[in-house]
Write the structure tokens for this entry.
Amino acid sequence: MAICAVMSVAVTSCGAGGAGSRTSDGRIELTVATFNEFGYEELFKEYEAAHPDIKITQRKTGQGAPHHQNLFTKLGAGSGLADVEAVEEGYLSQVMARSGQFHDLTEIGPRDVTPDRWLKWKAEAATTKDRRLIGYGTDIGPLAMCYRKDLFAEAGLPSDPDEVRQLFATWDSYFAAGDKFVGKVSGVAWFDSAAQIFNAMHNQHDVGFYDRADTLVVESNPAIRSDWAAVTNAVARGQSAKLAAFSNEWNTGFKLGRFATKTCPSWMLGVIETQAGPENAGKWAVTDAFPNGGGNWGGSYLTVPKQSRDAPRAAALAAWLTAPEQQIRAFQSKGTFPSQIDALENRALLEHVNTYFDNVKAGALFAAQVQKVKAAQHKGPADGQIQENVFGPALQSVEQGKRPDEAWRTAVQEAQKAAK
């Protein structure tokens, strides 16, 4: 039987969380489950210093897919979840479909943390039809383009960020520049992975794998088929390095200069710096030009499952981690770009210089890219699975020699299975 404990934080009911778990030294333990890089390690230490009665335990998964598989498995089992669970946008629709298993943060969170702190489209995506806020927005992924200046110069292409804009004006101009590049620089591809290019193109559309009625439209959406044709044709012309994203070979590809361009949502800067290493500092550049105008790729939320052992304290921690000041510091640490309006207007963000990328004012660059995003693409129930587990492998099979039309049919069939 659950027993409501009297705490200094107001709790409206037993369902809002109990006294939580205690460590051996008597502190209250809050668990936070994340994936990839959120930039929270130093922030956790600061929060613990300010709240000596709290111990934060991070459960960190290297990739998004296993993290979310674990999340949904434990939701089904009814136990085992962390007090705070991170959710990536591609999986948010599955969480929203199970919104009854998550707390409404407008009820259990700090009263002054309201949805209007965030970009409207960011908060709306985590708000149910009956106006329950399921997640506090962490980062977003405004799109820019990263490229190797030295390799561009070797190919006789312009290499200054202002001069390369014409190359990245449209996808047609991007692939045309790729044809010029692969004909000039031996052993180096134009881009890293067909799936990475396809994902960026796909995320620019108003309608993606699902329409707003959550009907799967993979086969009938002409934009998806057009993207597929453009990317697979570029593969056939030798533009892809054929490296699966986040694989060991892909990581090594940055270090060895296996490709010249990289689609760059803001969080990708930290990935490039980590994988390319100090020996490539100054070789990579980022420009605010992006084919067909930009878009958003990525971004996450912090949720508090009803399984949380101390929901009010978990919500307070999540609110603090997503506050403007902490969002800016996470960006400075790992390149995760803020989604709160005050953070986007903060001088510390706008004047932030990324020394690895030739001292570019990365904060101001991506803040400008945010303005090009008017709404987030609707993500349907199996959106994340279709992107990672269907189209990623299907495009990789093309890179390995499978006929594009055969791979397309396989992708459609697998997407239909995932959507059931």
Summary: The two ends are 37 Å apart (CA to CA).
